[in-house]
């Protein structure tokens, strides 16, 4: 293991006691830490997930990759003042004390209480990085035109500062979701494309969105984004830097379900199903790990994820495989350590009541 990896692992272990405090039910804030970080496809998207078998084939794409390094970032972006949405964003909300939703048991049963969590991120699978990659850009990055071929009337118009050699989910030859994400820390902006293909001088994509990360910037209601729920993808990604180098995740995570209902809960803006079964999860539904679920024997990496799930929870963001938690690929991940998450059953979770109503009749999408 390279020296920088040993140092990063050492920083993680040094913070292990604080993580265990959170796992004991006190929450990350009670351990003397605070702040926020952050990094949610239109229905009917092809899927796979790190090469594993995938539900009904309409969710996240398989073993992702990027032709630009490891796909986990790496261009510019040195403005640490740019957080991923403000502290009062739903993504950064501590939900550990919120009440359990009245329909929690039925929601969990529909997702699969005996099924298990799957970390849909890591090093690589069959030669391709596992996860949804992103690239960091800055104020000097040239703008690139975007041609939308499907949901242009629901997408933010380009051009976007997304280089044509940016990493693509699933790699350049992928037939999956092909998310492309650029994080501009200089201007504190986020740019995301779905089903993106680089051409000679522009991107071709099915949909896309841009977000001002300095405010609670929502995509218009009733509109899809680069994600089925009309949410941004990046704020819900598990990233190596926050898990190993910071030793904590201070935002909700993004995950997928095989079946969802024709409905959404804020902060989601869009549904991706025609099924009216009220026991299926709507897009935007917020789950959290039960406070008494024991992660004490897990690896430090998995323990950090557990602490986040107990404090910030996770949000239904797309149709795909049940319990697949999204993250960014990184060659430094320890896949065996992340594998501890695969032992967590669906019964370890409960649905929280955020006070938001389920919207089953979305307004017409209007992009201004």
Could you describe the 3D structure shown?
With 368 residues, this protein is α/β, with parallel strands linked by helices. The chain has one domain. It has six helices and 15 strands. It has helices at residues 3-14, 16-30, 104-111, 240-246, 300-311, 335-338, and strands spanning 118-120, 124-125, 128-129, 135-137, 145-148, 180-184, 189-194, 197-198, 202-205, 207-212, 253-257, 286-289, 314-319, 324-326, 349-351. Helix 1 (3-14) crosses helix 4 (240-246) and helix 2 (16-30) runs parallel beside helix 5. The N and C termini lie far apart (51 Å). The model is unreliable at 1-78 (pLDDT under 50).
Write the layout of secondary structure elements.
Layout: H1 3-14, H2 16-30, H3 104-111, E1 118-120, E2 124-125, E3 128-129, E4 135-137, E5 145-148, E6 180-184, E7 189-194, E8 197-198, E9 202-205, E10 207-212, H4 240-246, E11 253-257, E12 286-289, H5 300-311, E13 314-319, E14 324-326, H6 335-338, E15 349-351
Parallel strand pairs: 1-14, 4-6, 5-9, 11-13
Antiparallel strand pairs: 2-3, 6-7, 7-10, 8-9, 11-14, 12-13, 12-15
Helix pairs in contact: 1-4, 2-5
């Amino acid at each position: 293991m390279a020296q920088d990896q040993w140092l990063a692992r050492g920083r993680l272990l040094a913070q292990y006691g604080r993580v265990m405090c959170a796992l004991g039910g006190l929450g990350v804030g009670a351990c003397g830490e605070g702040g926020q970080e952050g990094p949610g496809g239109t229905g009917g998207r092809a899927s796979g997930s790190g090469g594993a078998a995938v539900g009904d084939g309409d969710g996240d794409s398989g073993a992702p990759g990027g032709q630009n390094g490891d796909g986990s970032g790496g261009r510019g972006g040195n403005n640490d003042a740019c957080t991923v949405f403000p502290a009062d964003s739903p993504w950064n909300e501590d939900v550990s004390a919120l009440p359990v939703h009245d329909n929690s048991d039925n929601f969990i049963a529909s997702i699969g209480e005996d099924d298990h969590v799957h970390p849909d991120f890591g090093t690589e699978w069959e030669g391709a990085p596992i996860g949804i990659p992103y690239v960091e850009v800055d104020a000097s990055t040239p703008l690139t035109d975007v041609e939308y071929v499907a949901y242009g009337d629901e997408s933010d118009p380009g051009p976007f500062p997304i280089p044509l050699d940016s990493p693509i989910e699933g790699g350049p030859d992928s037939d999956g979701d092909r998310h492309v994400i650029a994080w501009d820390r200089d201007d504190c902006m986020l740019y995301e494309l779905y089903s993106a293909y680089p051409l000679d001088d522009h991107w071709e994509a099915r949909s896309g969105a841009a977000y001002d990360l300095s405010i609670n910037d929502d995509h218009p209601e009733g509109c899809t984004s680069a994600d089925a729920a009309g949410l941004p993808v990046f704020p819900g990604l598990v990233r190596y830097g926050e898990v190993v180098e910071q030793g904590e995740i201070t935002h909700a995570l993004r995950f997928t379900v095989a079946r969802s209902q024709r409905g959404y809960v804020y902060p989601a803006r869009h549904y991706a199903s025609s099924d009216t079964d009220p026991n299926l999860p709507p897009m935007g539904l917020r789950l959290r790990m039960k406070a008494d679920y024991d992660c004490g024997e897990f690896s430090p990496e998995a323990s950090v994820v557990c602490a986040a799930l107990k404090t910030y929870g996770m949000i239904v963001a797309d149709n795909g495989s049940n319990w697949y938690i999204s993250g960014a690929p990184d060659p430094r991940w320890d896949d065996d350590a992340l594998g501890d998450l695969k032992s967590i059953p669906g019964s370890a979770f409960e649905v929280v009541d955020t006070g938001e109503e389920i919207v089953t009749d979305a307004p017409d999408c209007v992009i201004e």
